[in-house]
Write a structure and sequence with these properties.
0% of the residues lie in helices and 50% in strands. By secondary structure, the chain is mainly beta. A four-stranded antiparallel β-sheet has the order 3-4-5-6, with no helix packed on it. Strands 7-8-9-10 form a four-stranded antiparallel β-sheet, with no helix packed on it. Strand 13 and strand 14 form a beta hairpin. The protein is globular, with a radius of gyration of 19 Å.
Length: 192
């Protein structure tokens, strides 16, 4: 249901009987709705402007960027599939993952996700531009505005620097050695 600015006049109502909407967020000039079987976007007049059906895939994680881009992680027979949608609901790319990611994030033209303790930074088309292993189980994963990756653990944060990390050679699948990442302690006790 959409209301006017004063909240007194109801001017648009839609019903989705076969869908359970569990999150809505205003981003990219649209109201984005994440549901059990699809995601949708509505304009300020309450009109549905696009819809993306999951086609039987199981949604496990999602993230909506400030510009309205969405990244959706699915489980398909134990494998992970990550789909990036534009503000207009068009598929910008898809990435297959060896496992279902626990964490995903999207910023600019990149998405970050994990496979166990490994973190990857990928372009929307699936080209891995960064890969690194983390020291502990990942509780959260974020792309900072500086382009660095923030790996959040139970009691610390590790900052990964994509410009100085492992690069994957697409043809040979060989890796170059990366310098150490920076650790940021979040506990009150200093690191010894």
């Amino acid at each position: 249901t959409c209301l006017d600015v004063n909240g007194k006049t109801k001017y648009k109502t839609d019903s989705f009987d076969d869908t359970l909407i569990f999150d809505v967020e205003y981003a990219g000039g649209k109201l984005n709705a994440i549901a059990d079987n699809r995601c949708m976007a509505f304009n300020s007049g309450g009109k549905k402007v696009w819809e993306y059906s999951y086609d039987g895939k199981n949604l496990t994680r999602y993230h909506i960027a400030e510009n309205g881009y969405k990244v959706l992680a699915f489980s398909t027979e134990g494998m992970g599939k990550i789909v990036t949608l534009s503000t207009g609901g068009k598929v910008k790319g898809a990435v297959d993952s060896e496992s279902v990611p626990d964490w995903i994030d999207i910023k600019s033209n990149y998405l970050a996700y994990n496979s166990g303790r490994d973190v990857m930074l990928s372009s929307f088309d699936g080209k891995t531009v960064y890969k690194s292993s983390c020291e502990a189980d990942i509780k959260q994963l974020h792309i900072a505005s500086s382009g660095k990756l923030l790996c959040v653990y139970s009691s610390s944060i590790q900052v990964k620097k994509p410009d100085k990390v492992k690069k994957i050679n697409k043809e040979a699948q060989s890796e170059t050695v990366a310098p150490d990442s920076v650790d940021v302690q979040t506990s009150a006790e200093p690191q010894q």
